[in-house]
Structure formats: C-alpha cells, structure tokens
Amino acid sequence: MTEEQGDPRHLETLDRDLARFSNLEMATSYVSRPMVGLGISFVFVLLAGIAAMLFFGQETNPAIVVVAACLGAYMALNIGANDVANNMGPAVGANALSMGGAIAIAVVFESAGALIAGGDVVSTIAKGIIAPESMGTATVFIWAMMSALLSAALWVNLATWIGAPVSTTHSVVGGVMGAGIAAAGFGAVSWATMGAIAASWVISPLLGGVVAALFLWLIKSRIIYRENKIAAARRWVPVLVGIMAGTFSTYLALKGLKKIIKIDLSSALMIGVAVGLLVWVVMIPMIRKQSEGLENRNKSLKILFGVPLVVSAALLSFAHGANDVANAVGPLAAIVQASQSGDFTHSVAIPFWVMVIGAFGISFGLFLFGPKLIRMVGGQITKLNPMRAYCVALSAAITVIVASWLGLPVSSTHIAVGGVFGVGFFREWDAERRIRKARLQMPNRPTYAPEERLRRKLVRRSHFLTIIAAWLITVPAAAILSAVIFFLINAAIN
C-alpha cells in the first residue's frame, strides 16, 4: 500500500465517490423504471399485432386487423393502469393488502372475469352506441371504430399520467359516439341507448355511495357502537361474508356457467341464497376462533375484516374484468368481423384471441402502471380502514355485477369512487350527529370555528371537485378527439 492510499483523506474521498456512485445508481434505477414499463408495454402491443397476423394472415385486410389489435392492446393497458385502481385502492389504503398482493390478486381475477364472463357487454359497446348501417360501407365503419379506440386510449393515458381516475367506459363510449357523428352525422348515434347509459352513469355512483354508506351504518350500529364489540362482530361478520358469497355465486351462475349450462334468474338467486347460507354457517366458527383473545376495541375489529376485504376485492376484480374488457375489445371485435366478412350490421362474434388481448392487457397495465392511482383512490380521498374499505368493495361489487348482468356499460370508476365518497360523507354526517348529541348532553361544550370545522371534513373537497370535473369532461373530450382522428384518417386515405 502506498502512502497516498493509506492516507485517511484518500479514504474519505473514496467514500464520497462511492456514495456518489450509489446515488447515481439509485437515480438511474428510478429514472429507468418508467422506461422498463414502457418497453414491456411496447412489446405487448407488438405481440398483439403478431397474434392478429397469425390468425388473419390469409384474410383480405390483414393490415387493418393488425393495427386494430395493437390499438386494442394499447387501450387494455390503459384500462389496467387507470380503472383497476378503483378495485384494489380501498384494500391497499386500509393496509389489508400490500401493493404486490393487490396486483397479484387483481391480475388473476381480472383475467378470469374477462375470459369467463366478458361477452355480454361487448355487444353493447360495439353495436349499441351507433347504428352501423348508417356508416354506408365497412371501410367507414372500420375507420370509425379505430378512431374510437385510439381516442379513448389516448385520453385515458393522459388521465393516468396526471393522476385522474377517469372512466374508461366514458372514454370509449365518447370515442364511439364522436367517430359515429364524424362519419355519418348525429343521426348515426342511438340517442335512446346513450340516454340509458348516461342515466346509469348518474345512478351508478349514487347507488354505489348509498349501498356503501348503508353497509357502514350497519357495521357501526351493530358492531362498532356496541358495548361488547367482539361479541357483536362474531354475530355480524359471518352475515356480511355470507352476503358477499351469495352475491358472487348468483352472478357466477348467471354469467360464468352459461357456456356450460343455461341458468335462469330465479335458479341463480336460489343458488346464491344456498351458497350464502352455507358460507355464513362455515364462517361462524372461523370468526369465533379468530376473535379469541382480542381486546374489546375498534382496532381488534380490523383483524376480523381483513380476509373478507381481500375476498371482496377479488370479487370486484372479477366483476370489473367481465364488465370493462368490453372497452378494449368491443370496437376491436367489430373491426375484426367487418374486415373478415364485410358484415358490420349484425351481431358481433367475439374471437377468443381478442378476449385474451383484453384480459392480458388489463393485467399488464395494472402491473406496470397501476400503483399510482391505487394509492390515490385508497388514501387521498378519505381515510379508510378495513371496515370502511370492505363496505366500498362490497358495494362496488354488487353494483358492477348487477350492471354487467343487465348488459349496461356502466363505469366501474364511478361506482367504486362513489362508494369511497359515500363512506366518507357518511362518516362526516355521523360525526356531526354525534357532536350534536354530545352538545345536547353538555351545552357548555366549546364549538369549533367555521374554518376549523371545514379543515376537519373527512372527505377532501379538492379531490372531490377534481374527480367530478374529470368525469364531466371525459365524454366530450373523447368524442372530439375521436372525430378529429377520424377526419385525419379520412383525409390521409383520400
């Protein structure tokens, strides 16, 4: 060792250099992480195009199908990045699931829902918004569907980038409507269908919020505000889990098993009731055992709601996959059929490979880009614990399941975020009610100033107003963008 190398000042310099190198390595890793996601997304989009080429290599319009498959894959990635946050956000925000666990569960159940039960709503998206016969030719119809896909994907991509949980359903419906108007005028749009869908957009968040608030009221009144909380939880938690199991079983009987056996509504309801009762009976000893030794306080209740919350999140992911896969593959399926046979006026047959692109695209988008909005929905609107998050997830699952069964392309974003708002506003109302009650018992109790009362609101008003504004602008923005893209395509080919 030389004298210079043994000098302490040299060692200090070496430590500083190593520290700089370590910081540079961490910074490079941080910067490159988005690039890795973009690279994997690009590969997936290319693979979707290759799959389309393999299936339609001998068709008359293979290039069109390949481009459409790439656009459908791009849209599916954006759905996974933006929409799935609404399913897993409450569970992650309540610390019932880690981010990695939430992503793993969502990937499995989103894909299962899309592949098993994702067919009905696709027909509504592809054919219900515009009248295909008004397009005149198959070529015009294909350009309109491509414009709708691209505009919806671009809008959702932009919203995800700025951190806004917009509705992918709104985006694709607005895109289809805008392209239809650009291609054939306002008469091409089925305004009755649009009216029904618009009504469901208003009803779904309200219904999601009301149902979530009712479940929270049930939990508070029957469990949290009871003198013996653990004894009350032993009685009511199995009931809540039974409701969840019965709802899921009814839905699966109606949609998931239809390819094997036809089951009518009354039979499906009977199956749901039977499964719900069975799960209720099974959960009674399980909850009793799990609650042994727990202290009689609210913190202990969080443990009892952990597993039901995880299961309800999985249920919601299944329902979301069934309902929202239509946003990616509905227009794609219509393009495939029009390119293959020239028929664009009859019902759409959904090729299995098209459904696979939608299912896997949603999963990849969630895995690569979903955590940002998961954190926003789970922790930045209102504070969630396992009980509140369970109410949100169960409410959203029930609402999405009913909507998908009816074939309505409602927005899962509106339903889930509406449930979060419902829980938050119910907490505000309940807190005010308890303050008023305490003031009656203690008239001399000090009151808060108006500024302090506003600060203590349990729902962040800035997020509430921002999200409502994003919901309002999505349909016209997607429609205008789609119309512009259609005119550009039309100008380029003519």
Strands, count: 0
Order of SSEs: HHHHHHHHHHHHHHHHHH
How large is the count of helical segments?
Answer: 18
In terms of per-residue confidence, which ranges show pLDDT below 50 for 5 or more consecutive residues? 24-32
Portion of residues in beta strands equals under 5%
Number of domains in the coordinates?
1
Main sheet record: none
Helix proportion of residues, in percent?
over 70%
Ends distance: 77 Å
GO cellular component, one term: membrane
Subcellular location: Membrane
Organism: Poseidonocella pacifica
Protein name: Phosphate transporter
Describe the protein.
There is one protein chain. This protein has one domain. Helices cover 81% and strands 0% of the residues. The protein contains 18 helices and no strands. It is elongated.
In short:
The protein is mainly α. It has one domain. It contains 18 helices and no strands.
